[in-house]
Structures are given as C-alpha cells and as structure tokens.
Amino acid sequence: MFISFEGIEGSGKSTLLENLKKYYLKKELEVLFTKEPGGTELGKDIRGILLNPTSLISSEAELLLLMADRIEHVTTIINPNLKKNKIIFCDRYIDSTIAYQGKGRNLSEDKIKELIDILNLPIPDLTILLDLPVEDGLLRANKRNELDRFEKEDINFHKSIRKSYLDLQKKDPKRIFLFDSSISENKLFKNVLNLIEKKINESH
Length: 204
Ligand code: TYD
Description:
By secondary structure, the chain is of the alpha/beta class. The chain has eight helices and five strands; from the N terminus they run βαβααβααβααβα. A five-stranded parallel sheet has the order 2-3-1-4-5, sandwiched between helices.
C-alpha cells in the first residue's frame, strides 16, 4: 500500500509522520517512511539545489529536477518496496508537483500529468491532505528554521497552492482525504491513524 502526505508549508506533515513512525515501527507490519524531494542519494543532491534560497532555477528546470528526483525514488525505493508488499509512507509526491509547479509556478497541469504518465509513476492508494490557513502555516514554518527557496515565496504563491490542493481533493475524494490540521497534534494523529487502519484492513 502506498500512502502519500500533502499540504502547504507548516501544515504539520512532519510532526504527523513522526507520530505515525513511532506508532508503526513498534508494530509487526512492514513499513517504510520516505520523502520527496531527497529520498535517495541522488535526490539529496537535487533537494539541496532546489531548496537553496540562492539557487537560480527556471520553473521548467525546477519541474524536471523534481521529476528526476521522483523517478530515481520510484525506481530504486518505491516500486521495489511495493512489490514486497510494504506499506509506504511518503512525505510529498505527485500532488505537490501539480500544486506547486502547476498552480504555484503556472506550468501546464496537463503537461505535468503527461509526464506522470510517461514516467509510469504509481498513483498512491491513499493521500492524506493536511489543510490550514496559509497565514497559520507560514507562521509555523517561520518559527522552525531559516526559510528555504519555496517557503520564501510570497503569500499569493502559497494561497494558490492551498487552493490547488483543495481542488485536487474535490476532484478525487476517493483517493485524497482532507484533514483540518489546525486541531491538536494528538487529535490529528488519531484521526489520520483511524483512516489508515481502516484502509489497511480493507486491503487484506
Ligand atoms: P521540505 O522541507 O521537505 O518541505 P516540507 O517540510 O514543507 O514538506 O521541502 C520540500 C519543498 O519542495 C516544499 O516546499 C515543496 C517543494 N516541492 C515542490 O515544489 N514540488 C514537488 O513535487 C515536491 C515533491 C516538493
């Protein structure tokens, strides 16, 4: 089973994934926690370039760097582990590209979808979308560390990404499940865990 996690900056994905990791690593289930960009050796270098606030990258090159990161990750980590029937928890995946590069950078969503097709990328069985107001998310991200190249973008960039995520969820509610992440960390963890457990049971 392939589960991806999505959301705007400061939406609480990292904390939620830490909590899920603590929970599932104690269980007998075969799980794998990974992320994009930067889930492979090559990906770590690509991530460094993409997140560095001083990098000058055109939107098109940004898209292809993310896709290079993704195909390396899919080929060497995701597909082999799906074959072994592991449960994969992936921090960001294709919906990030549609939201950030499609809406955020104004690249054609159809072209991004074509690339996804050409590369034969697996579609997640389940996507957890964490949502909260952009202002609140950016406040959280600001407190955490120095802002990266994406976090430094203006508020309208982040608002368009939030809207894109919400549209994607409306179009594909069987795959993408929306969670309000302005509630407490523990409540959010329990809500998401309930859904994941249900999906795991259904898949057996
Ligand atoms: P990261 O620090 O992992 O962000 P977060 O902690 O918010 O998940 O940085 C990843 C950044 O890369 C994030 O700002 C979103 C961006 N990104 C894209 O723009 N497109 C993509 O397809 C992916 C996977 C990430």
